[in-house]
Amino acid sequence: QYIIAIKGxxxxxxxxxxxxxxxxxxxxxSNVNLTSLFCLENNLESLHAINISPSTLTTxxxxxxxxxxx
Length: 70
Known about the structure:
Strand order of the largest sheet: 1-3-5
Helix content: under 10%
Number of strands: 6
Distance between the termini: 21 Å
Oligomer: single chain
Shape: globular
Radius of gyration: 11 Å
């Protein structure tokens, strides 16, 4: 099981690609300026993005994560 939590207010982080890493959990909620997220082809069961604005995060790809529910 692979878990990643990018904690702290990483305001400079705009682009994140964690595709093809067998991740099961991803927490990006502290990365409020993130504009692009690619997390394709993992084993994600949970993705936390509670503080991320849909108007800021304009590119969001999560396909091929069969256990990830909206």
